[in-house]
Amino acid sequence: MPDTRYATIVFENPGPAIDDKAGGHLPSDESRQYKARRAHTKSRKGCGTCKIRHLKCDERKPTCGQCIHSDRACSFASSPIAPKSPLHRGWLQAPGVPSQLPADFLNSYYAGISEIWKKIPATINPMELLDHFMHTTHHLWIGGPSCQMILQQHGPRLAVEAPYLRFAMLSFSAYHLATVRRKTKKYELAGAIYYSCALQSYSTALHNPGAADVDALLACSVLLAMIAYKSLTSSPQRRGLSADKEPVPNITGLQVMTGFSILKSVPALQPKLGQSVMIGQCEKDRPSSLKSVAEYSEKRATVERLERFCNVDKRATTLEGVHDVALSSLRHLMLSEVGDDVIATYCFSVRGFDSRFISLLERKDPKALLLLCYWYVMGARIGQWWMVDSAQLDGMKLLNFLRENPSTEIQELLKFPLASLESV
């Protein structure tokens, strides 16, 4: 018989103390209630960082939720990820994402690349960046809704045979993490290195486009455009300009954002562009018109003043009609609701900035600078992470420069950009 001298009974609502030797009695089975044993809630396979901090780990790999929230280095990210089904069959299936990647997908990132890889921080795990790119779906951060859906669901599959897209995805993901985790400097460096690799590989593909997948090229051009636009804010030359100096128009950013036009200029790609799935899907993001009648009337009046101003001396210039395409795109943007669906329209509107318009910007033409200022204002109002800082910076530089112009028409037309930038 087991020794029960020291056994105790735990009651949910214990009454007075019971002394059996003193003639007391135990309660009946109906009156006593036992506490149920609590289920085990601790993490047995958590990361080392959470164990040291005595926190419950959600065991998500390559970086657990606790480490993401506290911006700490997760031990999962620095250790090999154990293959799970269906990796043993040679494929990686991302949860909730219908993309399949070969088991040697990450190894292909390093094939044929020079000494540049030695510059990547040892703490950067490409799998962490890929996981962030594919599975960060709780908010919009990769262009418009259709663009993000296509790139997250089909980008990894397209990237299997397209190194330029692989590097662009890793760079975009690293730059976004650098924005989210500002205290962690390694992501900014990784983003710059992957971006350099993407440009190098993308340029090689454009010189030999016969075997290239047009949707992979388009996806890469979209990511490179957003990265280039975002990276302009980190330029000391641009950040250091004072308000009383002439602005440096964002020519580089505008040229990079015309990636679709660059692809159209490649003869071997022209027949393929008509078969692109990505173009058709992205064009589904059509912004709705302004719902407020008062706001619509006010912005329409502003657009009409812009059109009259830009056409004042139209017959006197050799660049007749050069502002027309840019004005048409700007009208569509200004009369649309500012939201997720307008991002694709904003990006495609840069096609109105052709070589003639770029030439006017380089010559500091007031009309072209005014239209560009309006375009930046719309970008700042949309506010996606890769555009908002550059749009605010360049928009304010142009605004300050144009405020020195003696034209009363320009001063009147600057009221909308000024009010918009101050409210962002």
Write the layout of secondary structure elements.
Blueprint: H1 48-52, H2 65-70, E1 91-93, E2 100-102, H3 126-135, H4 145-158, H5 163-180, H6 186-207, H7 214-231, H8 236-239, H9 251-257, H10 259-264, H11 270-273, H12 277-282, H13 293-310, H14 324-334, H15 343-348, H16 355-362, H17 366-382, H18 388-402, H19 408-413, H20 415-423
Summarize the structure.
The chain is 50% helix and 1% strand. The chain is an all-alpha fold and 424 residues long.
Distance between the termini: 79 Å
What's the assembly state of these chains?
Answer: single chain
Low-confidence stretches: 1-27, 79-100, 236-244, 312-319
Order of helices and strands: HHEEHHHHHHHHHHHHHHHHHH
Helix content bin:
40-55%
Strand segment tally: 2
Largest β-sheet summary: 2 strands, antiparallel
Rounded average pLDDT: 75
**Portion in beta strands:** under 5%
Provide the structure class.
Answer: mainly alpha
Total helices: the number is: 20
What is the overall shape? globular
Total individual domains = 3
Q: Over all CA atoms, what is the radius of gyration?
A: 30 Å
Give me the side-by-side strand order of the main sheet: 1-2
Protein name: Zn(2)-C6 fungal-type domain-containing protein
Domain Zn(2)-C6 fungal-type: 46-76
Keywords: Nucleus
GO molecular function, one term: DNA-binding transcription activator activity, RNA polymerase II-specific
